[in-house]
Amino acid sequence: MSGPSPFARRLRRYYLWYTISFICFVGLLAIGEKMGMSQGVIGHVFLFATIAIYAGIGVMSRTADVTEYYVAGRRVPAMFNGMATAADWMSAASYIGLAGTLYFTGFEGLAFVTGWTGGFVLVALLLAPYLRKFGQYTIPDFLGARYQGNVARVVGLIAAVIASFVYLVAQIYGVGLITSRFVSVEFEIGLFIGLAGILVCSFLGGMRAVTWTQVAQYVILIVAYLVPVTILSYKVTGVPVAPVMYGTVLGKLSEKESELLTDSAEVAVRKQFAKRADDYEAKIAYLPDSLDAERRELIERLNQLRLNNAPARDIAHTERALRDLPRTPDQARVQWERARVEAIERSRPPPRHAQAHPGDTPEQRQVARNNFLALVFVLMVGTAALPHVLMRYYTTPGVVEARKSVFWALFFIFLLYVTAPAYAVFAKWEVYNNLIGTSISMLPNWLVSWGKVGMVNIEDINGDGILQLAELSLNTDVILLATPEIAGLPYVISGLVAAGGLAAALSTADGLLLTISNALSHDLYYKVINPNASTQRRLVISKSQLLVVAVVAAWVASLRPDNILFMVGLAFSIAAAAFFPALVLGIFWKRANRPGAVAGMLAGPAVTLYYFVSTHAFFGGSMENAWFDISPISSGVFGVPLGFLTIVVVSLLTPPPPPEVRALVDYVRYPRLPADDPGIFTESK
């Protein structure tokens, strides 16, 4: 058995020195903090130095060669493709959102870990080696060849653009969140600072630059993820092995949860929030009269305060309340309904961290179980169908390397996923023990800092000056980023975590941008509009699409449509419904034909998007429209079976594909080219 190639050995040497240099860089910043370096300087150095590294790799990897630009020359060794795939995969959702989701949902959050990990098993068994054997550049390439022409190709590229765009918005949102907090700029400005880092990596060198940048980003993000939780594990348990030790802390946390659930002050606060929810319900029921009455009441109160020379703070507070009052009954209905839902959430006791499928009744527990299973299914199938992940297997030297790179990707992803539950438990332990029950006037600075970004909200509803659990509202995405500050670790650790989050968001955003621009330039422009386009023109079109898509995605992210993990869940549902049935049946069922595939790729995503829009509040939907009480994040659970059923039924009702298409299936499925293969597709492509 031959050893690694000279190219692979050279890469190992380069990235070993890179890793050692990065660790030394962090050590120097830690020494600088000890010597008085300010937090602002540390944050700026971390973020801009890492972006400069990625930009440097992007510039050095620039290329005008089509194969290098689209598939990195098909020479990426399995281990490095596994690292790049892991970085491409471990987006802001995994890095930033997963720990927060586990913090708030406990056992239920394990659906993400189970679904995402299981998805790579499907990739290895059902898709990656066969797509690599096919050999072209994009997923729509395969759809166009397997299903005879541009109709299937165009439907596939539309689905790829929609799914990747939703995913991209989540990544840019994460970039804006990190830069706005650690560089002290407005959220919208932070979006475009991060966008510059995304573009410089993918714009010049395409997949070649993105691949080598993603390997560098993986090193940073995994170091940044493991270091804080290892220190925290040692601080809390005395043993620096977080995945092993968090179980002992979970037992103590369960006891603390029992105390908080029965604490008289906590119960009283939850009742006050329940009363507030009832008040909002009544105000909504009596619109528009209730809006007029509230406006009159605020005006009268403001006049009385001014007449009585009340403190300026009280006057300003009342003026702000009057200014923020909805202008119309329709605005009031939307705003008050949102406030009512928030009050209801705060009025409920938090679920126990270790409880599976929580609920007050058997029916509620069954609904929780169904949603857990639906989410696992969607994430597994969505993982196996994401275009930007599947594209990575076109970059390996051959089919065997593609299979090996799936193994390496699973290993590198495992390092993060096995640690995420520990993050959630340790962070919750610190909050419950060192934050809840303290005086609001003595709260730590990190609450104020994250409050300015809109990620933390504290409301002393009972006016006792003590922080109760229900009075603290934390955004899901803040848990990981704030954990070092929650635990009182040195600020250099916070900067390290931010740099890791930025690496995770940038790496995935690079891959997604490349997927979208390649679909538009290669599959639409070159394959459909202008097959005679020169190499130079194809690359110009691709790069121009990069710019347009990036700016539009940044604008959508500035609207803050939802938290990162939820947006990513929607992308998975769309990808699962659009691609998984068509790809799997295209590889394993010769009878699947063009009418069936096109119908399936339209029907599955259509039902998925309809269900999401009709049940998600951002689009004016409501869970009253839900089927079987399934959450909108799992909308693909309806689209995937419909996609399979539609492809099978329509294919059986229409003529079978021609012999050359069946020969293509044999070529993709089996190690050697069949004797009767027309020879159109070769692995060198």
What does the model show?
With 685 residues, this protein is mainly alpha-helical. The chain is globular, with a radius of gyration of 27 Å. The model is unreliable at 673-685 (pLDDT under 50). Helix 4 crosses helix 21 (491-529) and helix 7 packs antiparallel against helix 8 (150-182). The chain starts with 5 loop residues before the first helix and ends in a 16-residue tail after the last helix. The chain is 74% helix and 1% strand. The chain has helices at residues 6-34, 39-60, 66-71, 78-89, 92-105, 110-134, 139-146, 150-182, 187-237, 242-262, 264-285, 289-307, 312-324, 329-347, 362-383, 387-390, 399-417, 420-434, 445-452, 478-486, 491-529, 535-558, 564-588, 594-615, 636-653, 659-669; strands at 456-458, 472-474. It has a two-stranded antiparallel ribbon.
Strand content: under 5%
- Structural class call reads mainly alpha
Give the mean pLDDT: 82
Order of helices and strands: HHHHHHHHHHHHHHHHHHHEEHHHHHHH
Q: What's the overall geometry?
A: globular
Helix content: over 70%
Strand tally, please?
Answer: 2
Poorly predicted runs of 5 or more residues? 673-685
**Biggest sheet character:** 2 strands, antiparallel
How many helical elements? 26
**Strand order, biggest sheet?**
1-2
Euclidean distance between termini CA atoms: 26 Å
InterPro entries: Na/Glc_symporter_sf, Na/solute_symporter, Na/solute_symporter_VC_2705, Sodium:Solute_Symporter
Protein name: Cation acetate symporter
Subcellular location: Membrane
Main location: membrane
